[in-house]
Amino acid sequence: MSPLSSPYPRPVPLIGDASAAAERAADPAAWAFPGPAREAFYDVVGARRDIRRFRPDPVPPETLERVLAAAHAAPSVGHSQPWRFLVVRDAARRDAAALMAEREKLAQADLMDEESGRQLRDLSLEGIRAAPLGVVVCCDRRTPATGVLGRATFPDADLWSCACAIQNLWLAARAEGLGLGWVTLFRPEELAALLGLPDGVVTLGWLCLGWPDERPPEPGLQRRGWSRRAPLSEVVFTDSWPGSAPPPPPSRLAAPDQRAVVTARDSGDDLLTVPTSLGVLDTVLDRILAVRPEGAAGGTLVLAAAAHPVTRHGVSAYPPSVTGDVLAAAREGTSQSATAARAAGLDLHAVDTGTGDGDLLTRDALTPASAAALVERGRATGLGLAPAGLVALGEVGIGNTTPAAALAAALLGLPAADTVGLGAGADSAMLDRKREVVEAALARLDGRADPLAVCGGPEFAFLAGVVLGTAEAGGIVVLDGLATSVAALAAVRRSPGVVAHLVAGQRSRERAHGLVLRELGLEPLLDLRLRAGEGVGACLAAGLILDGLRMRRETARTSA
Questions:
Q1: Partner of 89 at 20 to 30 A CA spacing, among 6, 36, 138, 171?
Q2: With contact defined as beta carbons under 8 Å apart, do 133 and 65 qualify?
Q3: How far is it, in rounded angstroms, from Cα 350 to Cα 134?
Q4: pTM summary value
Q5: Positive/negative CA dihedral, 351, 473, 478, 357
Q6: Hey, what's the torsion of the CAs at 473, 475, 477, 478, to 10 degrees?
Q7: pLDDT by residue (tens digit) across 202-239?
Q8: d(CA 492, CA 108)
Q9: Is the separation of the CB atoms in 261 and 292 below 8 Å?
């Protein structure tokens, strides 16, 4: 039933965003304020000035509250609101602050050339005493950066948030007809001591606030010839710093454009359900439909088998013959991978990718020629299978958690200790041997070598090619455990646009798997602590995805 003929009205939330994707698409600019309000805003921005002279008249409490409320409405990273507004009325504290600033102004002037020093000495700091109010914006930095969303990567984001609060305060003051001057000629520790700030709370300077005794038509320092406002064209760049970064390597692949991403998200907006009701699965469905708008109703499990000479070094708890047994059972339809594929509605494509050329400890896993041939073989497979639906990845290769750990370490730039895990049935002594092998492989790797050849193995190169081919054909790859994920990472290193075509089916118990998924920016659909291998986790996830796509198609739609 089409949305136009739906008998169900769209559920409108009683709180939060009441708009619908359809109305947002019909008029993307509808959120704008009316013309006069926009013009007034830009007038306020253009008329903001750094005020140095003030009238003695008091600021009404209700006006001060409005201005501080505007500051408190500023954006803050992780909604941390680290600002604290210390309003200073006490004349003695203002006198002490003014003395601090005057001393620092003279000290800084002595460090400048003669003309600049003269101009700095002419700068009036009387506003600290003359303004009826001082407002010191403090930043409470006592919350660890890792505890605030967005600060683990940019620890100073709390200071930026406080600067945003100052800007809000300044614009609100200008709209009220108040003047504001920002003075930072302080030694931070002296100002903090004057105000009794605890350890971990820092100031961003002193704001002089009151009714202005000047009406400057342009910024004061510009008027005095200290500096000029740079043209906008001098401060706006595109894509990278001019002349500093080489263009990215050419790629046959690109992520879906903005229209495709938004269209996919809109496809779930008018369902008769709460938005994002399926959680991570909804996010995955949006990702799939952005790449493949027609969705999928089936697909194929690609099971890549390989033999690894590294097993002679005692890195696996099982004999190498198990690889052949599992491959034979898969082709008979009786392996765990085959039954999992059937249950998910997937075909099975089992491939023997051969035996590695080296044992990792003394020789590279593959020659460059072998690696290249396997990648191309996998690419052809991916190109052929992508049109039929999802391409789920699986592998079987006794001992392959060792090359998987080596390849992960090589691609992530980590030591062996961070990526080597127990694998299936290993003990601590076996873990030591695995670590020794991985360290030897990493020692042979240099910046020019192909990690797939040095550290990988046949199934890794083949699966990396499958990922490249599937993505090139506009398909979706569902990853399984560490081995398939690190092969996908190798493909992404070759062509970054591949990542838009990947779905993390599960997170396994292998030590490095979470690190690889994080590098790919993927959140797994399942976290069952699987050790099954063979693509079982990918099949379970693929079944979930196919069910989700069917729900998108068949769930009732609502009217606008």
A1: 171
A2: no
A3: 74
A4: 0.76
A5: positive
A6: -160
A7: 999 999 999 999 998 877 666 666 567 788 888 888 87
A8: 52
A9: no
